Sequence to fold (321 residues):
Amino acid sequence: MALFDLTLDQLREYRSASVEPSDFDVFWAKTLQETREHDLDARFEPVETGLRTVQVLDVTFAGFGGHPVKGWLTVPAAADGPLPVVVEFVGYGGGRALPHTHLLWASAGFAHFVMDTRGQGSAWGGGDTPDPVGSAPSFPGFMTRGVEDPETYYYRRLFTDGLRAVEAARAHPLTDASRTAAVGASQGGGITIAVGGLVPDLVAIAPDVPFLCDFPRAATLTDRHPYREIGSYLKTHRGRTERVLRTLSYFDGVHFAARGRAPALFSAALEDQTCPPSTVFAAFNAWAHEEKTIEVYDFNDHEGGGPHQEAVKLRWLPARF
Fold:
């Protein structure tokens, strides 16, 4: 696929037409207050993996609604003091997978916390966290689960889990709570942006080719899943577009970005039909912190920069710690 979205010059100036709800902050303050009524109950159990350079802990913590959420905490084998911690969120359909698939950040000397994704983890990278909350009829996938009301929407639970994952990562004595960063790609990038807007004291975020940004444009620009799930739902449930877009506005990365208070490193791919570059730039251009940069991969699809972007992050992130 050749370039299909705006030109790079246009992307750098693009602003989303997504309308922020007047009660956006009230909605999220209420959501987090209700969640924190449940004890975090972060538990860490050592895991024997056969790996010699790292130690791995199987984590369980209370996410949205007090529901148990899994994760892995991986630290260098010789770690004996508080380390900077990188909290990572995974892509659509995936789960926390197996510990040996998450060695990058611990190999660089950091603590690394990867959050499992409730209800996902059956398309790739197996998951271990169910989503006990049901929903009204939805198109197969997660984009339309409970989509007609912000209170019931799936991503209300998942974004809240993300914030609690940061709290759980900070709860272990081998992590330095004052030096916490959030990273992720695709859906993980969208969660990263949301967490960056909800957690006021992160030292950095690094979302790669992020999903869940600029819903009004994404839902009409690309016919590739997962965004296409929205159109498929509305194709059947005629006349509900306004209601659905209102719900999605509470979860749009553009509005979380406007509250971003940490240095940010984004990435975008100009041939990305899954997360079109204009939707990524919409969040990047809205990111409030003045220290921000975006890596652009001009002939790449949703794989983005891949290992090249990992190398960029390995150079960029240590200076923020």
User: Anything to note?
Assistant: The CA atoms of residues 38 and 66 lie 5 Å apart.
